[in-house]
């Protein structure tokens, strides 16, 4: 069942200077927005902000942008950003399909895709955030040897995504089918990751590097 829109979400976010509703106006100017020349990383779909708040807090020398059309979720992420005073984060409530209208080519260092919708029906595969249609956009935006970090609980999506990456300008440089039992000390867990782990579901994870 579709959740009812929180009427207060957009008005609240409009009071937050770190939420950007007219992000297209900043294309090619993001370093001016952040007032530095630090690398820019993206998280595509942010849930309620556990991941971005933790990773941005320990990496103050990196700028982060989160993109998510679901205002019911992103509003909680923006609260965390505000309350923790994470000045190196901007939130963009928008459709991820518009990503190339917001960022310039060769301007992004890393992209995080955490537990995106697997879109299991074949006719919906083009909506997957790892589909070749999206990878073509990411490839243009990423700097040389830029990376995509991808997590999912869905076996079919992970298998398909491996093919997508390998056949569309990326090299998979790290892969595990059970992240909880894999030696990766840099891992920061998301809300979904905690939930799936508690249910005994193995988390699949890979890092793909732009060729």
TrEMBL record:
Substrate binds at residues 121, 153, 190-193. GO terms for cellular component: tRNA methyltransferase complex. GO terms for molecular function: tRNA (guanine(46)-N7)-methyltransferase activity. Pathway: tRNA modification; N(7)-methylguanine-tRNA biosynthesis. InterPro entries: SAM-dependent_MTases_sf, tRNA_(Gua-N-7)_MeTrfase_Trmb, tRNA_methyltr_TrmB_bact. It holds the Pfam family Methyltransf_4. It catalyses: guanosine(46) in tRNA + S-adenosyl-L-methionine = N(7)-methylguanosine(46) in tRNA + S-adenosyl-L-homocysteine. It comes from the Bacteria. The keyword Methyltransferase applies. S-adenosyl-L-methionine binds at residues 43, 68, 95, 117. It is an enzyme of class 2 (transferase). Keywords: Methyltransferase, S-adenosyl-L-methionine, Transferase, tRNA processing. Its EC number is 2.1.1.33. Catalyzes the formation of N(7)-methylguanine at position 46 (m7G46) in tRNA. Belongs to the class I-like SAM-binding methyltransferase superfamily. TrmB family. HAMAP family: tRNA_methyltr_TrmB. This is tRNA (guanine-N(7)-)-methyltransferase. It comes from Parvimonas micra. The lineage of its organism: Bacteria, Bacillati, Bacillota, Tissierellia, Tissierellales. The gene is trmB.
């Amino acid at each position: 069942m579709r959740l009812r829109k929180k009427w207060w979400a957009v008005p609240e976010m409009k009071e937050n200077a770190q939420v950007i509703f007219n992000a297209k106006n900043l294309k090619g100017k993001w370093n001016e927005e952040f007032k530095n020349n630090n690398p820019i990383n993206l998280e595509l779909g942010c849930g309620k902000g556990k991941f971005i708040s933790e990773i941005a807090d320990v990496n103050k020398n990196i700028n982060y942008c989160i993109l998510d059309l679901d205002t019911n979720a992103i509003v909680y992420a923006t609260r965390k950003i505000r309350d923790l005073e994470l000045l190196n984060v901007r939130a963009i409530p928008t459709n991820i399909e518009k990503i190339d209208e917001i960022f310039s080519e060769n301007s992004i260092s890393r992209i995080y895709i955490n537990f995106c919708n697997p879109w299991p029906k074949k006719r919906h595969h083009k909506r997957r955030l790892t589909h070749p249609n999206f990878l073509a956009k990411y490839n243009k935006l990423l700097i040389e040897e830029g990376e995509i970090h991808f997590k999912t609980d869905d076996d079919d999506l992970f298998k398909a995504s491996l093919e997508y990456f390998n056949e569309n300008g990326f090299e998979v440089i790290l892969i595990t089918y059970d992240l909880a039992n894999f030696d990766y000390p840099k891992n920061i867990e998301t809300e979904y990751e905690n939930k799936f782990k508690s249910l005994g579901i193995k988390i699949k994870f890979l890092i793909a590097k732009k060729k």
